[in-house]
Design a protein that fits this description.
about 775 residues, alpha+beta, 6-stranded antiparallel beta sheet, 30 helices, disordered C terminus
Length: about 775
């Protein structure tokens, strides 16, 4: 059993045990007896038998610090066969000059002063290269005359305790560095060095998993050959890729005693050749979620197995490394999230502000223009309302990918917030002629089918752009103009784009201020309705009108629905606003009838928030009763997404409307998310084909096919079909060929005031062009 195994964990030599021994030596060994060989032999034999049973170092030295007596433990640890080989030698012959001088100076001081040295900690490197710590006590030996003739010493091996203490200090230092935010490389190097200090002939290293989870990168290895660490940088993990590559792959400890005889190292011998490395013990570094973060490896210059102590040390080091790496990853994540959107991975508003200022500075230096493009998804709230936020998040990620794909690496895309994105466009695309092509390409990409799970649908967006320095000379104005252009695109009917023009764009809108103005505007009568006529395509007669809200803002002027409806929806003001529209539309339609005009149906849009309001049915009854309008002359227009959020509840509520005699239309059909199976259960009277399918009828066969299918579907379900957004005679002719009953659009009439529509209703059929069914402007001017 070694001295280390038998060492007292206290590591202290009791002084009361040393003093009697020194006294006995003083009596037995007079000065002249040290010179008398026979007497020394008798004494030596007696003492030798005694001290050989002691596990600590026990020795006697003469006045010149030469060994006179000692136990075998002293001799064998120093490298001799027995104590006889040690007698007569001094520390100058056994240790390095530095260590020998320290021992000699201490012993001479004891002998000169007569004052013992108690529990002095000493570090010694033994002949086998191992480092040992001792707690040594040395007492003077006095002769019968009281003169010091030598010393008696005892040293206890405190290596285990000392290493435990040093390990604890090292761990504390590592934890302190982690807590104070030291760089990861610094923390890991401290860890490796503290482990190397605990183990003899061992070199440590930490390798880190790369972002792909397929390779290990060199982290820190302060004492391994630099060429070797470079050679293994980017090591691919696998079942037989050295110790570290295999440990990362299997998530288990891989301890290889002989690198040149291990199958795991067979493919890595070319890397290890030329380096004095024989063994490698690797422990995987795992996160709290058991994900591999890297490996902690220990190398030796000798072929040998790891001891249980070394295994424990390596596993403890791996756990500390895990804490350091996870802390570093968390800080990187925090820094990343400070500048990026966590959902899409695109830079966020904070990062955008910095990039925009940087781009402005660059543009001023070079004179090259750049553009800002706002991309706002149309009616995205319906996606969340219909399918939930999880699906909504997936849609946003798909949209971000499409924007990134179109902009490529030459332009910078940012998630501005919610369902709004912004692009910084430079280079040739920033010129307005090219910018239009870019925005059209982006718009087209956005409208492609989205498939999530078993659901397929489309989303559209509105885009607005402004160019620096043509449209603005600072960041704030540039953003305001691009945002205003985006609202112009929404005012065009959504799924459109608009380039800022100083003469065309209205004043940009502050949403928060607008919200407050809206609250008072509803009460103060700032809102009014315009009506767009709907014509029977065969007879040319007006059969209905759609009521459209307008806001005459006291400062901003005329605002269109695209500029305030979404805000009203989000804030809940759509409830009082929608109620006012319902009552006013019923009142106005009854007023036209009282004037003796041809009765028509008035269509009123119902929002999601209104449809969820428990008082909607009662509000409709009240509006009809108060105005005196018959229910058959009122039509409620509902969107697809609104209907399928809760199909059963929707059917029940719609049955209530039908029992009143109110007509029900599904608006923007083809752009929503309903299934045909659910559609057949709704008590509808009309389908309104969305304008996005009508706009390109002249040159897109796909849109023509969709329009034919919807018209045919409507007939099969017994529904009247209305085509919205008809703007050309060709579109009219195509719809007539498909037997579409009703049309609505600029080709037949723009939204107009109640007075103008009243004059239109007063006209006879002969006053309308029966070939085109268009309205002579002179009659509604």
């Amino acid at each position: 059993m070694s001295a280390e195994d038998k060492s007292d964990t206290s590591g202290l030599i009791r002084e009361d045990a040393m003093v009697p021994l020194a006294r006995q030596l003083s009596v037995l060994n007079k000065v002249d007896e040290f010179k008398n060989t026979n007497k020394l032999d008798v004494t030596h034999e007696w003492l030798q038998a005694l001290v050989n049973h002691v596990s600590d170092y026990v020795f006697v030295k003469d006045r010149h610090s030469r060994f006179v007596v000692g136990n075998d433990r002293v001799a064998t640890d120093i490298g001799f066969k027995g104590i006889s080989d040690l007698i007569g030698k001094s520390d100058w012959e056994l240790h390095t000059p530095e260590v020998a001088k320290r021992f000699f100076d201490d012993e001479q001081t004891v002998m000169e002063t007569g004052v013992p040295l108690i529990n002095r900690e000493e570090i010694v490197i033994l002949s086998n290269g191992k480092t040992r710590w001792f707690a040594a006590s040395k007492h003077p030996i006095f002769d019968e005359n009281g003169e010091v003739v030598g010393i008696v010493g005892a040293s206890r091996d405190i290596t285990q305790r000392k290493r435990a203490q040093l390990l604890q200090n090292g761990q504390n230092k590592v934890l302190q560095e982690i807590a104070t935010g030291a760089p990861l490389a610094t923390v890991l190097e401290t860890l490796v060095l503290s482990i190397e200090e605990q183990l003899d002939g061992v070199l440590g290293s930490v390798m880190l998993m790369d972002e792909t989870g397929k390779k290990l990168l060199s982290g820190v290895a302060p004492n391994l050959p630099e060429d070797y660490t470079k050679a293994i940088d980017g090591l691919r993990i696998g079942p037989s890729v050295g110790s570290c590559g295999t440990a990362a792959y299997t998530r288990k400890n891989v301890f290889v005693d002989n690198l040149f005889e291990s199958e795991l190292w067979a493919n890595c011998l070319g890397v290890i050749q030329g380096f004095d490395l024989k063994s490698c013990w690797s422990v995987p570094i795992l996160s709290r979620n058991s994900e591999v973060l890297g490996t902690f490896g220990l190398y030796t210059n000798a072929v040998r197995s790891a001891t249980a102590h070394e295994l424990q040390i390596a596993e403890e080091a791996a756990r500390l490394a895990s804490i350091a790496i996870e802390r570093d990853n968390a800080e990187k994540r925090i820094r990343y999230l400070a500048h990026h959107d966590p959902l899409t991975g695109l830079p966020n508003r904070q990062e955008f502000d910095a990039k925009l200022e940087e781009q402005i500075s660059l543009s001023r230096d070079t004179g090259d223009p750049f553009a800002i493009v706002f991309v706002d998804m149309d009616n995205f709230k319906f996606v969340n309302d219909s399918f939930g936020h999880e699906t909504g998040d997936k849609v946003l990620k798909i949209v971000a990918e499409r924007i990134t794909e179109v902009s490529k690496s030459s332009h910078q895309a940012i998630r501005f917030g919610g369902d709004e994105f912004v692009l910084i466009i430079d280079g040739p695309d920033a010129k307005k002629t090219n910018l239009k092509q870019f925005m059209e390409k982006l718009r087209a990409e956005m409208t492609k089918t989205i498939r999530i799970g078993g659901t397929s649908f489309h989303v559209t967006c509105s885009l607005g752009a402004a160019v620096f320095p043509n449209d603005a000379d600072n960041a704030e104005t540039l953003l305001r103009h691009a945002d205003g252009a985006m609202f112009e695109a929404k005012a065009l009917g959504r799924n459109s784009f608009f380039l800022f023009e100083k003469k065309q764009c209205r004043n940009p809108i502050n949403k928060l201020a607008l919200l407050e103005d809206m609250r008072s505007g509803i009460d103060d009568g700032q809102f009014f309705l315009e009506y767009q006529p709907q014509f029977d395509l065969m007879s040319g007669r007006i059969v209905g009108v759609e009521a459209l809200a307008r806001w005459l803002h006291p400062h901003l002027g005329l605002l269109m629905p695209a500029q305030f409806i979404e805000l009203a929806e989000e804030s809940g003001l759509i409830i009082p606003l929608g109620l006012w529209v319902l009552k006013e539309a019923c009142r106005q339609n009854k007023s036209w009838q009282m004037a003796g005009l041809t009765p028509v149906t008035v269509g009123v849009n119902v929002s999601v928030r209104q449809f969820r309001d428990m008082t909607l049915l009662a509000d409709v009854k009240e509006a009809l009763a108060k105005s005196g309008l018959e229910a058959k002359y009122l039509e409620l227009e509902l969107t697809e997404s609104l209907l399928i959020q809760n199909a059963e509840t929707a059917v029940d509520l719609m049955e209530g409307f039908r029992n009143l005699g109110v007509n029900l239309a599904i608006d923007d059909f083809g752009t929503g998310y309903s299934s045909l199976a659910a559609l057949k259960d709704f008590p509808l009277t009309r389908l309104k084909i969305d304008r996005s399918f009508i706009r390109d009828l002249d040159h897109k066969e796909s849109d023509r096919s969709i329009a034919r299918a919807i018209i045919s579907l409507g007939r099969e379900l017994g529904l009247n079909v209305v085509a919205e957004g008809v703007e050309t005679a060709k579109q009219q002719a195509f719809l007539a060929s498909c037997q579409c009953e009703t049309v609505q659009g600029f080709h037949f009439g723009r939204p107009m005031s109640s007075e103008k529509l009243e004059r239109l209703l007063a006209m006879t059929l002969t006053q309308i062009d029966v070939k085109t069914h268009s309205i002579p402007q002179s009659m509604i001017a």
